[in-house]
Structure to design on (166 residues):
C-alpha cells in the first residue's frame, strides 16, 4: 500500500508540474494577447488621427475651392467690364488692342482657375474615398480587437476553472 501511495504521489506531483507549466504558458499567451490588443488599440488611434487629418484636408480643399470660385467670378466680372469698355471706347485702336490682350490674359487665368477647381474637386473626392476606407479599416480592427478580447477572456476563464479544478 505504501509503495502504491508513493507512486500515486509521484504521479500527482508530475501531473501538478505539467499543469503548472501549462498554466505558465497560458499566462504567457494571455500576456502576448494583451500586448497584441494594445498594439491594435494604438493602430486604431492612428486610424482616428488619419481620419481627422483627412477631414481637415477636405475642409481646406473646400475653402480653397470656394476662394477659387470667388476669384473666377471676380475675373469674369472684370472681363465683362473690359468687354463693355472696349465696345464703348473705340476712341483709340491702341487701347482696344491693350484691352483685348488683357482680356486674353484674364481668359487664360480663368481657364487655369477652372482647372485648379477641377483638380481640387477631384482631390476632395479622393480624400473622401480615403476617409471611407479608413473608417472601414477601423471598424474591421475593432471587430478583430473584440474577437481577440473575447478569446482572451475565454482563455482566462478556462484557465481559472482549470486552476480551481486543480
Amino acid at each position: 500500500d505504501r509503495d502504491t501511495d508513493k507512486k500515486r504521489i509521484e504521479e500527482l506531483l508530475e501531473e501538478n508540474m505539467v499543469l503548472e507549466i501549462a498554466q505558465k504558458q497560458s499566462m504567457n499567451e494571455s500576456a502576448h494577447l494583451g500586448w497584441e490588443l494594445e498594439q491594435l488599440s494604438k493602430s486604431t488611434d492612428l486610424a482616428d488621427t488619419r481620419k481627422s487629418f483627412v477631414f481637415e484636408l477636405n475642409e481646406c480643399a473646400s475653402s480653397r475651392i470656394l476662394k477659387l470660385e470667388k476669384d473666377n467670378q471676380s475675373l469674369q466680372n472684370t472681363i465683362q467690364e473690359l468687354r463693355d469698355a472696349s465696345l464703348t471706347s473705340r476712341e483709340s485702336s491702341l487701347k482696344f488692342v491693350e484691352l483685348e490682350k488683357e482680356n486674353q490674359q484674364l481668359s487664360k487665368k480663368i481657364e487655369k482657375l477652372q482647372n485648379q477647381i477641377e483638380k481640387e474637386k477631384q482631390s476632395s473626392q479622393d480624400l473622401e474615398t480615403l476617409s471611407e476606407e479608413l473608417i472601414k479599416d477601423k471598424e474591421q480592427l475593432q471587430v478583430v480587437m473584440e474577437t481577440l478580447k473575447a478569446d482572451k477572456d475565454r482563455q482566462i476563464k478556462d484557465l481559472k476553472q482549470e486552476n480551481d479544478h486543480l
